[in-house]
Amino acid sequence: MKKTEGLGPAVLLVFLFFLIWEMAARAVNMVFILPPPTGILSKLWELREPLFAEHLPSTLAVIMIGLAISVVVGAGIAVWMSISSAAEKALYPLIISSQMIPIIALAPIFVLWFGYSIWSKVVVTVLITFFPITVNTYDGLQSASKDLRELMMTMGAGKKEIFFKLLLPAALPHFYSGLKVAVTLSVIGAAIGEWLGAQAGLGYFSRRMMTQFDGAAVFAPIILLAAIGIVLFILVKLMENKSLKWRKTS
Fold first, then answer.
1. Does a structural domain hold residue 145?
2. CA 42 distance to own-chain centroid
3. Average confidence score pLDDT of the chain
4. Count of domains observed in the chain
């Protein structure tokens, strides 16, 4: 009940935002630049067949494959850096440097390498999403209590027991924090990849509609992209609550 009541201000703010948008769009009366929300929803329903049957599955495939690779690679690198100081010294600067290059500048290069296949978009998504997973997971592994580790070693615990009973529980909250950031960035990565080079996808469809000066059709796939990000964030939050019940009880 309290959670539902807490959503009240947010729902009211969103309602006011769309109400002001609707009124402003009707006052300006330039649909190709600023379509009203009702017009966008109408266009979304009108274009539901190509959007939901062709372009949405394409974007979802890019997002899910990119996220899966980012979780495996990001968590793996984080564990490697936590157990090897040499790996940490070699990889950490490279991981930071990878975020200094604008992804939008690299995306055309990936199109040259992989063509218009799904992998050019997946690479863009991975480059954007692996960073928060890697850094947060590594920080979580490093946050484990040194006193508890020494105590477990004194009691005869091996590296395997220390990892699964101490390091992993300490890292999980940080891992989920990074994953929540990554799922929202994955939508951006997929859209950027599709925007610069694709034959299908919500980003591609939005760019194609822009050349036709159809503002409502440009916004329609953007609404779906936002919905994907929200749904993925909620799913990760539910996974976090279910797997970290011990944190609430403690």
1. yes
2. 28
3. 87
4. 1
